[in-house]
Design a protein that fits this description.
single chain; about 140 residues; mainly alpha; 6 helices; about 80% helix; globular
Length: about 140
């Protein structure tokens, strides 16, 4: 039936998990965690005091699941690895990162923070797109 979307739920789950794990690594002290904290004015103590970490992680995973569904619908069921990678990169770098850029200009946030946050989303969407495109 034209216009009908079918989803590969396992690929969407794997794409979601990949994004969640990438975020854990990206914002850890191993990569950009300390720089991100510095740019945001956070300390370990303020992060512990602000919000429930379990709730934040759970809601982040849920939002990333919705993002993966949205990207899967955008890519379509007949995509390939190269197309999925390109579509994910276009969404992550072309839409999400550039949207951050516009917002950060008006919020007077640093270029360093832009590269950390926009870079995460660009890479995350690229990986999600590659998984969704390859595994249709």
């Amino acid at each position: 039936m034209p216009g009908q979307i079918s989803f590969n739920y396992l690929s969407i789950l794997v794409a979601t998990v990949s994004t969640f794990l990438l975020g854990g690594l990206w914002y850890s002290p191993v990569l950009f965690g300390r720089a991100w904290m510095q740019e945001m004015g956070f300390t370990d103590e303020t992060l512990k005091a602000k919000g429930n970490v379990g709730r934040i992680m759970g809601l982040s995973f849920l939002l990333e699941l919705f993002m993966a569904f949205n990207l899967a619908a955008f890519i379509g069921g007949k995509a390939s690895f190269p197309f999925g990678l390109f579509a994910g990169a276009a969404a992550g770098f072309g839409w999400v990162a550039l949207s951050f850029g516009v917002t950060y200009l008006f919020e007077r946030k640093s270029l360093r923070l832009f590269f950390i946050n926009a870079g995460y989303h660009g890479v995350a969407f690229s990986i999600m797109g590659a998984i969704l495109g390859a595994w249709h």
